[in-house]
Amino acid sequence: MTRLPSRLALIAAAGVLALTAGCATPNRDGSSYSARETRQPMQVQTATIQGVRTVKLDREGGGGVGTLAGSVIGGVAGSNVGGGKGSIISSVIGAVAGGVVGSQLEKAGTSTEGLEITLRTDDGKTIAIVQAAGNDRFEAGQRVRLLTDNRGQVRVTPL
C-alpha cells in the first residue's frame, strides 16, 4: 500500500508538468516576432481603424494533454475506492471525471485575449485582422501599419 500513494504522486506530478508544457503558446500580438521572422522583408500598407472588438483566442488542437493527464490521475485515484468490482467501477468513473476536469483546465489555460481589428486600407479595401492583445492600444480613427510577411500573415502595428 505504501507504493500506491507515491506512484499516484508521481503520476500527478507528470500530469501537472504535461499541463504546464501544454500552456506554452507563442505570443501572437503585433509587437512580438519569432527568431525565424527576423531579417525577412515584409510588405507595408497603411490603413485607418474602423473598429476594434475584444475576442477570445483558443489554442488550436489543445493536444488532449489535460484530458489524458486528468483521466490517468482520476483512474488511479478511483482505483483506491472500494474493492473488487467496486474498484473497477470507481476507476472508470474517476477516469471519466478526471478527463472532463483536465480538458476544462487545459482549455482555460490555453485561451488568451485577442483583438479583431476592422480596417479600411488606403486603397479602399475593408478588412479585419485578428491578433493577440498586447501592449499596443488601438481605437477607431487611428492610423496604423499592416505588415504582411512572406507567408501572408498580417499584423497591425501603430504608425
Strand content: 25-35%
Q: Any idea how many domains?
A: 2
- Gyration radius (Cα, Å) is 23 Å
Tell me the number of strands. Answer: 5
Kindly describe this structure.
With 159 residues, the chain is an alpha+beta fold. It has two domains: 77 residues, no CATH class; 76 residues, RNA polymerase II/Efflux pump adaptor protein, barrel-sandwich hybrid domain (OB fold (Dihydrolipoamide Acetyltransferase, E2P), Beta Barrel), CATH 2.40.50.100. Helix content is 38%, strand content 27%. The chain has three helices and five strands; from the N terminus they run αβααββββ. A five-stranded antiparallel sheet has the order 3-2-1-4-5, with no helix packed on it. β2 and β3 form a beta hairpin. α1 runs antiparallel to α2 and α2 packs antiparallel against α3. The longest helix has 26 residues. The radius of gyration is 23 Å and the shape is elongated. The termini are far apart. 18% of the residues are buried. About 4% of the residues have low confidence.
